Amino acid sequence: MIRIGIMSFAHLHAYSYAHCVNSLPGVELTAIWDDDKNRGKEASEKYNTRFVENLDDFLGLPIDGVIITSENANHKRMVEECASAKKWILCEKPLATTIEDSISMVNTCRREKVGLGIAFPCRFIPAIERARDYIGSGKLGTILAISCTNNGTYPGGWFSEVSLSGGGATMDHTVHVVDVLRWMLNKEFEWVYCDLGNQMHKGVFDTDDIGVLQLEMEDEIQVSHIASWSRPKSFPTWGDVTMEIVGTKGVLYVDAFNQKLNVYSDAVMKAEWAFWGENPDLALIEDFVHSIEEKRDPLSTGVDGVRSVEVTVYAYESAKAQKKVKIKRNKV
Amino acid sequence: MNVGIIGCGTMGKLHAKCAQNLGLKVSKCFDEIGKAGKSFAKEVGAKVSSSWEDLIDDPKVDLVVIATPTPYHYPALDRAIAKGKHVFCEKPLCRTTEECAKIVRKAENSSAKVFVGHVVRYFHEFEAIREQITLGKIGEVGFIKMYRGGASPSGVKKWFQDFEKSGGVTLDCMIHDFDWLRYVFGEVDYVFCQNLTKLNRPPLDYSQVTIRMKNGVLGLVIGTWAHAVGFRVKVEVCGSGGLIYYDNMEGPIDIQLRKKEASQGTIIPESPVRKSPYEREWEDFLGWIEKDEQPRVNLYDGLKAVEIASACIKSSVLKQVIKL
Fold first, then answer.
1. What ipTM was predicted for this assembly?
2. A132 and A274 share one domain
3. With contact defined as beta carbons under 8 Å apart, do A94 and A100 qualify?
4. Which of A261, A310, B222, B269 lies at 20 to 30 Å from A81 by C-alpha?
């Protein structure tokens, strides 16, 4: 039996992860801790587990692994607490809001000899796995250019409070695609140019709701990426992850969540997309469980987390400087 | 009015048809490739001129269509304007901004009316997008993504693939989107561009342009000559109160043939409407010639579009933001 705890339901993904933990055989959602007592209690009732108010009590439980789904800026503190309690860790993305924090988190976990993984479910989407295989097999030839999007709906709440989130849509929606591209191509990012702003939500919040990134990967691969909260409330779904990958032998198009039905319901009076694909969160949690059993890091490691934070932080720096900036890869 | 057509390729044929449909006579034609000129002449009932200069100088030619590879636009425009002939010039107006500026100046001092074929302004779907924006259906526009392209065209002597001549996908193809963005949102503030010119891998080109309009609208424009087949146009406009999405693959008609005919020239997307966007631009041009009604596109627009595309190409070389 693998025992899992969840720290904080500030991030909506916590609900999906809790559901996944409960649906895996041989895995138990042992306890929930949350600095928001009501939210934690409610979640514990929903997922049939106990709520522990005191953090020391929570970490004193015989829990093997902890999923951290707090606000971005609180990841570091919680990772440190879990690591010193010798818990395996799966941390929500982005790993941290600064490069320094992300590196220090990786070092802490190494020192305490616990595994650290980042919740990058995109690596577990079958279409993305397939795309990686195509690229790896050389079917596309040499990769020349890539255009990506990770669009979403404004999630509300702390996501636009920079002190908690570290930034807006660019902070929220750059890291998934950065991680996937690094994983698919086995190459790093060299520089980034980013133009961003609050383009669609003036008066609602101050931080950026879209970032348009231009990047170069090793071997001069040109990449563009849109990280946004540009999907309106009336949009049929939450958003997308798409990639157009141009190689010397052909072009590959990935629309990762395009396994859906079009549903027209008078009850909601807007078109909806009903997703029928496999839930990538389930495979993500399964990998986390295996990583505990096998005493290894999860598939996306702390170093992967640092790399995606670096790209994001330099994207903000570029936007401020209004020019492209080199991405320094720190030793970790 | 008699029309003379220089450049008897895909676009030359298309413009001959438009002119004829509007009751004009295509009397003369010329193509660098003798055979192309002859078969074209037979098709449209025109006579082949001995040179492009003769065609322009011919007193019986009132209107000159320039549908040649881009580098030949400037000398043909220059001569036609000097002779006071009306001109329909395909986009891009000229290969360089400097040439465009000269043409604008010369046309100002001439009775010739020079029209540049920024046909996207006349596409029904683009008119509809503009109308939805103007109606305020999606609130205030904050971001736009435009996508255009497909398989790489080759053209006569593969001129498209010589990026020095064609300007690659950035100048030849994305100029449509740059012009349309100016048309709808006003002037451009700055651009940042990456394309495949750096790798020198013709016929493949793929261009990604970050564009900031002076009114604050942010955009990403993607142009491709790197696809295996087809021609795709996509537009996404994001506003404070909604989103518009257009994809030319979602159309009312689709034909699949078992045997694929290899296409040499530019592939023109099918937009099945009674009056094609090309006929509509011709009507607009004729309205200007005959009734002096200002057309939707003027020569200055042609200059500005080349200026934007050139800034993008410069950005891709310098890897810098280029202010306009």
1. 0.95
2. yes
3. no
4. A310
Q: Are residues A25 and A163 in the same domain?
A: no
Provide the token pair at B61: 């030619």
Instruction: Tell whether A140 is covered by a domain.
Output: yes
Which tokens is B324 given? 């306009």
H helices present in chain B, as ranges: 10-21, 34-44, 52-57, 73-82, 97-108, 124-134, 163-166, 168-172, 175-185, 277-291, 299-318
Find the CB nearest B238 among A197, A230, A251.
A230
pTM greater than the 0.80 cutoff: yes
Q: Which single residue is written with the structure tokens 């997309």?
A: A273
Chain A CB contacts of B224 below 8 Å: 246, 251
Tens digits of per-residue pLDDT, A52-110? 999 999 999 999 999 999 999 999 999 999 999 999 999 999 999 999 999 999 999 99
Find chain A residues with C-beta within 8 A of B218's C-beta: 195, 197, 199, 210, 212
Q: Is the pLDDT of residue A265 over 60?
A: yes
B230/A contact by beta carbon, under 8 A: no
A182 with A262, same domain? Answer: yes
Residue with tokens 């990583």: A291
Note whether B194 contacts A209, CB cutoff 8 Å. Answer: no
In degrees, rounded to 5, the angle at the alpha carbon of residue A253 between the alpha carbons of residues A247 and A256 is 135
Total domains present in chain A:
2
CATH number at residue A85: 3.40.50.720
Partners of B208 in the β-ladder: B194, B222
Could you give the residue ranges of the DSSP H alpha helices within B149-268? 163-166, 168-172, 175-185
Pair A103, A202 in one domain: no
Distance from CA of A201 to the nearest CA of B (A): 6
Say if residues A34 and A52 touch (Cβ distance below 8 Å). no
Can you name the residues that pair with A245 across neighbouring β-strands? Answer: A146, A252
pLDDT tens digit sequence for B133-172: 999 999 999 999 999 999 888 888 888 988 999 999 999 9
C-alpha span between A150 and A147 (Å, rounded) = 11
For residue A222, give Cα distances in angstroms to A210, A215, A246, B39, B168: 20, 6, 10, 43, 16
Q: Which structural domain range is residue A202 located in?
A: 122-278+309-326
H runs (alpha helix) in chain A? 13-23, 37-46, 55-60, 75-84, 99-111, 126-136, 162-165, 169-173, 175-185, 280-293, 302-321
Cis peptide before A121 (omega within 30 of 0): no
Instruction: With beta carbons under 8 A apart, name residues in chain B contacting A193.
Output: 192, 210, 321
Residue A273 shares a structural domain with residue A180: yes
Find, among B45, B77, B50, B47, the residue nearest to B64 by Cα: B77
CB B190 within 8 A of CB B307: no
* B272's tokens: 């099945």
